[in-house]
Amino acid sequence: VKFGFPLAYTATVLAWGVIEYEDGMKAAGELENARAAVKWVADYLLKARVEPGVLYGQVGDGGLDHSYWGRPEEMTMDRPSAKISSSAPGSDLAGETAAALAAASIVFADDKEYAAACLEAAMDLFTLADEHRGIYTASIPGAAGFYGSFSGYEDELTWSAIWLYKATGLPKYLDKAKSFWSEFGIGGDALQFSWDDKRAGCFVFFSELDGGSEYTS
């Protein structure tokens, strides 16, 4: 089973690692492996966004998949797929996928065509997340028992806006991130940084971007 929400988070964090520690990865001889891992997920996410404003967020049934103890080549059960769109919102899923693709566009800045494809999809999915707000498990209920968005979608909206600012340098995305911070009350205690809760990551970026101020407390 493919769960798009934790997959996109994993891609974002992998890409973040490449961006922050490129020299160390290169010295360890692991940079190309890290880039390959990011691209494998980014390729999938680009395909999952089948058209503007439409993103497939799950393939397969979690219950059936997890109950099967055998080779994937021998799996014969149905493999349903589920998507989000303007009529079936999923701001957390769309926002995290936008963050992943924005981060990937930075990793692959040396491949202008691929980076542009990632960035175009990221901007589209951010718009979907912002303009059609809702928790993704309302549109993809099959994910609720596995990767429910317990922290809500507000952290992903903020997180994705910051990543788009880092990728594009466009002030409108930083303005969006700051407005989300105020609108949603993102500050406060962050108990973890995980596939569900991105607030701690937002704290780090705001601290880097403006030296702290009111956006890190």
From TrEMBL:
Assigned protein family: Belongs to the glycosyl hydrolase 9 (cellulase E) family.
Domain Glycoside hydrolase family span(s) in chain numbering: 1-208
The protein's name: cellulase
Lineage summary: Eukaryota, Metazoa, Ecdysozoa, Arthropoda, Crustacea
Enzyme Commission number, as recorded: 3.2.1.4
GO biological process, one term: cellulose catabolic process
Keyword vocabulary terms for this entry: Carbohydrate metabolism, Cellulose degradation, Glycosidase, Hydrolase, Polysaccharide degradation
Reaction catalysis annotation: Endohydrolysis of (1->4)-beta-D-glucosidic linkages in cellulose, lichenin and cereal beta-D-glucans
Gene Ontology MF terms in the entry: cellulase activity
InterPro entries on file: 6-hairpin_glycosidase_sf, 6hp_glycosidase-like_sf, Glyco_hydro_9
